[in-house]
Amino acid sequence: MQAKAPDRDRQRGRLRDALKLLALLLVLLAARSSLADHNVVPSGSMRPTLLEGDHILVDKLAYGLRVPFSHLVAWDFGGPARGDVVVLDSPVDGERLVKRVVAVPGDRIAVRGGRLVLEGRPVPLRAGAGGLVEELPGRAHLLSLDRGGGPDLGPLSLPPGRYLVLGDNRGNSADGRVFGLVPRELIVGRAVAVWWRDGGLTWLRL
């Protein structure tokens, strides 16, 4: 009988270790769900800003603190701004996407030939060192019309809690012109930077 005591102690020790490991995994998964994560860019819809295969750092605390493993926002810090590159779940099938916010609640927006018309005025577009630059209020960014402008949209006014997201590669992007306006709760975080590109470490702020 006494010979079995060390076996029981070992079993209890293994159980404690397994529970500690499980708790650690749950904490890490919760952190990835609510605090920060990384994503791989799946397509060329955000060219030239993002390339296929880029690894991006995502700040999931940028707009609020989420309940882990859900779309519920426990503490709202304010929604995305025009020009933010965001990670969202598609309203159609839940697929994880990377797009740019081009209009926020209250905006009146239209898209014509890939170009934005905000509050009745075309958003300025100019030639830059890296290509075309779209000058959204408060945020200029590179834009590609190499494959045309894609579908037109609007004009429409954005209701509370709804955002319009587009790809920077306007003629090669299935975005808000296809799946509609995005509810605030489906935007899971802001893309902060590219940290891996072409097989090597980098740091390109977005």
Word description of this protein:
With 206 residues, the protein is α+β, with helices and mostly antiparallel strands. The protein folds into 2 domains: 1-34; 35-205, Umud Fragment, subunit A (Ribbon). Helix content is 17%, strand content 41%. It contains 2 helices and 17 strands. It has helices at 5-34, 176-179; strands at residues 36-40, 55-59, 64-66, 73-76, 85-89, 96-103, 108-112, 115-118, 121-122, 125-128, 131-136, 139-143, 153-157, 162-166, 182-183, 187-197, 200-205. Strands 1, 2, 5, 6, 14, 15, 16 and 17 form an 8-stranded antiparallel β-sheet that branches. The chain is elongated and about 80 Å long.
Overview features:
single chain, eight-stranded antiparallel β-sheet, 206 residues, alpha+beta, four-stranded antiparallel β-sheet, 2 domains
- Poorly predicted regions are 24-36
- At CATH level 3, the topology of the largest domain is Umud Fragment, subunit A
Question: Overall mean pLDDT score?
Answer: 86
The DSSP helix count reads 2
What is the name of the CATH class of the largest domain? Mainly Beta
Q: Report the helical percentage.
A: 10-25%
How is the biggest beta sheet arranged? 8 strands, antiparallel
- How many structural domains are formed by the residues? 2
Strand content: 35-45%
Helix/strand/pairing category: alpha+beta
By CATH, the architecture of the largest domain is named: Ribbon
State the end-to-end distance: 66 Å
Shape: elongated
Order of helical and strand elements: HEEEEEEEEEEEEEEHEEE
How many beta-strand segments? 17
CATH homology group of the largest domain:
Umud Fragment, subunit A
